[in-house]
Design a protein that fits this description.
mainly beta, Thrombin, subunit H, Peptidase S1 domain-containing protein, protease
Length: 287
């Protein structure tokens, strides 16, 4: 269905092999930080009604804890990053929508079970390539003034210098271990890929490809960090990317890397949703 071994991918593989011994970025812990909101501010409660908190059951604490962010793109579907929870069974995952505070028992919250998960077939956790995943909810979210959908983009690239925002419940400082209780947002700027691949930036370890967006702050005061992974990158009011990885939080020479929502990913999203929801003659997904 999705051929990962194409000429383009083979070329990427050759580059990856050359630099494999120099790879220094780890995903999930701690380098694959999923980006937390550093240098940001609390958003107006329920002003980002498409935001989802993806939570994993902690066996030791016997409770669910925030792991990643996500975006409600259909009442039955959440779009997030593939690296967020591949090692967890779907029965260990729940999605919370309609939340501003993770700790307060808000009446606006909806807690939804995950029926299935669909990581992109060609996801490579060693390079961050194709870091995108769909979560099928067991029960559709009830759309209201606190829970809304975010329209998918047209797949066009985002120009360097574009001002964007990213929101999440991730850690708020590089020294912190706990996620933010309330949803926070930060402004960042898209950086040209040629700059992010330079020796004094990522130095091609890994290669920042056209499937990715590199964005951050020149002074290193604003960034996404651990716990923000999977959340949406909004550029010019459009859903442009997904929080993926970074080497350090708020390091001006290691900006956050985001999965760009390309035309190929959009085709995969539509095909996946259509294939699973064959019973739904009027899908509510927004394109």
């Amino acid at each position: 269905m999705y051929q990962c071994i194409t000429q383009q991918v083979m070329m990427k593989m050759l580059v990856q092999i050359v630099f494999a011994s120099l790879m220094v970025i780890s995903f999930l812990t701690p380098g694959y930080h999923g980006v937390e909101i550093i240098g940001g501010n609390d958003v107006k409660p329920h002003s980002r009604c498409y935001m989802a908190s993806i939570q994993i059951f902690n066996n030791r604490k016997k409770a669910y804890a925030h792991q990643c962010g996500g975006t409600l793109i259909d009442r039955n579907w959440v779009l997030t990053a593939a690296h967020c929870n591949l090692e967890f069974g779907k029965n260990k995952i729940q999605v919370v929508v309609g939340a501003h505070s993770l700790k307060i028992n808000e009446t606006t919250k909806q807690i939804l079970a995950v029926q299935d998960k669909f990581p992109y077939p060609c996801f490579d956790k060693s390079t961050g390539e194709n870091d995108i995943m769909l979560l099928k909810l067991g029960q559709g979210a009830k759309l209201n003034e606190y829970v809304t959908l975010l329209k998918l983009p047209n797949g066009k690239d985002v120009k360097s210098g574009t001002s964007c925002t990213v929101a999440g419940w991730g850690i708020t400082s590089a020294q912190s271990k706990d996620p933010s209780d309330t949803l926070k947002e930060v402004k960042i700027t898209v950086i040209d890929r040629s700059v992010c691949n330079r020796k004094d930036y990522y130095n091609l370890k890994p290669v920042i490809t056209t499937n990715m967006i590199c964005a951050g702050d020149k002074k290193g005061k604003s960034d996404s960090c651990v716990g923000d992974s999977g959340g949406p990158l909004i550029c010019k009011k459009k859903f442009s990317g997904i929080v993926s990885f970074g080497f350090k939080c708020a390091d001006p020479k290691k900006p956050g890397i985001y999965t760009r929502i390309t035309e190929d990913y959009l085709k995969w999203i539509k095909k996946t949703v259509a294939g699973v929801e064959t019973y739904n003659t009027e899908p509510e997904i927004l394109y």
